[in-house]
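TA notes, week 10

Several of you asked for a full example with nothing omitted. So below is the full record: structure tokens for the whole chain, then the designed sequence directly under it. When grading your own attempts, check the secondary structure regions first.
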């Protein structure tokens, strides 16, 4: 391990192009699909209407079945390929908007209106006569492709890689979810960029003094030592600055001037967690889970978990302070949306986009790219080796 006090910026280094199109294509994304991806907030998926989502360029329709459980199907009717998400949900079943074919939670056709009352969707006896009390037989017309789902921590997840028992990692848990001392709320943001570039943005400190100047940090021209640990599909950055501060709402979280513990953590292939902690009674965690829509289009589900160092009733914290915290974090995220749009415009400006140059401050990004490139290529073997290194940069 190198000593950061002796470190100088690395020579200019280029890394291979980020293949955003392959990363966002279900047939070409390799092992990137073998993880759980957030489809929506639990509150967004009701029993009244279907919800359309896109994963790796593949359209999926979600609805709740008769038990209230989330269902995800390929968004295409077997009959004339109409988009099922434009249809209706009734009794835990999904009806196509074109000819009314009805699907149950397994994706099976259970009713075809044009066949009349005596059809596969009715309970029939051995002679083919309608009879009450018999089990309904699924129609022989087939099933729409179904994707495994999971609901936890206020989120609905979808697994696009086939049998979810082969998932490479369990669905990510929202930090401090369900803990009474903590408040948690979600922000859903559409970003004009791909997953690799977004996770690097969410893990990046140097950009904060330019993109979020005055809102989050101010240019101080100070040296920041840190340790970057790459292991088991994650990249953990620990910043070694007890006196580091954040502007804006930072004073609200740390009125006593306690040392700040700041860590950034990436979990392959699409999750980041950024923690700012002041002692045991105050802090906030920003957890972002990214769902790839297309090569330069993603939906980000950000859970903001925070605890304030005041002995205030929980209801008061929620009513008085949550709107302020939400407004503040919304402004910061909007700034990231804009700079990700600016980066996308550069990426698409002729050939060569996605070949990055970097220095020591970009070591964590190189580690993230190494993991995602390995998964894109199929994720075979041990993957990038575990490594821990000290770095230093200026902000």
């Amino acid at each position: 391990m190198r000593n950061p006090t002796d470190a100088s910026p690395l020579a200019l280094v280029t890394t291979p192009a980020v293949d955003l199109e392959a990363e966002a294509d279900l047939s070409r994304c390799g092992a990137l699909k073998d993880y759980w991806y957030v489809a929506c907030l639990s509150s967004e998926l009701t029993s009244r209407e279907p919800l359309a989502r896109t994963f790796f360029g593949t359209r999926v329709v979600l609805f709740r079945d008769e038990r209230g459980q989330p269902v995800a199907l390929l968004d295409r009717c077997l009959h004339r390929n109409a988009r099922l998400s434009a249809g209706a949900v009734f009794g835990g079943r999904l009806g196509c908007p074109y000819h009314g074919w009805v699907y149950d939670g397994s994706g099976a056709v259970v009713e075809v209106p044009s066949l009349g009352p005596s059809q596969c969707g009715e309970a029939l006896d051995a002679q083919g006569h309608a009879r009450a009390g018999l089990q309904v037989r699924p129609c022989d017309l087939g099933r729409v492709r179904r994707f495994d789902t999971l609901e936890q921590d206020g989120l609905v997840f979808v697994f696009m890689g086939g049998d979810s028992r082969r998932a490479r990692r369990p669905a990510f848990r929202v930090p401090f979810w369900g803990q009474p001392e903590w408040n948690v709320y979600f922000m859903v943001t559409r970003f004009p960029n791909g997953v690799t570039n977004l996770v690097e943005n969410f893990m990046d400190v140097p950009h904060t003094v330019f993109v979020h100047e005055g809102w989050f940090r101010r240019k101080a021209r100070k040296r920041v030592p840190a340790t970057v640990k790459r292991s088991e599909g994650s990249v953990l950055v620990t910043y070694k600055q007890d006196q580091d501060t954040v502007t804006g709402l930072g004073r609200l979280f740390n009125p006593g001037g306690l040392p700040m513990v700041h860590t950034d953590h990436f979990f392959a292939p699409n999750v980041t967690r950024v923690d700012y902690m002041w002692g045991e009674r105050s802090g906030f965690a920003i957890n972002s889970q990214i769902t790839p829509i297309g090569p330069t289009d993603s939906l980000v589900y950000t859970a903001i978990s925070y605890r304030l160092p005041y002995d205030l009733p929980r209801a008061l914290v929620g009513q008085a302070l949550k709107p302020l915290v939400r407004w503040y974090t919304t402004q910061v995220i909007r700034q990231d949306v804009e700079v990700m749009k600016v980066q996308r415009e550069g990426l698409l400006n002729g050939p060569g986009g996605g070949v990055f140059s970097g220095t020591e401050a970009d070591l964590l990004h190189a580690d993230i790219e190494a993991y995602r490139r390995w998964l894109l290529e199929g994720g075979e073997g041990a993957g990038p080796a575990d490594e821990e290194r000290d770095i230093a940069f200026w902000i």
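Residues 121 and 135 are 10 Å apart (CA to CA). Use that as a sanity check on your answer.
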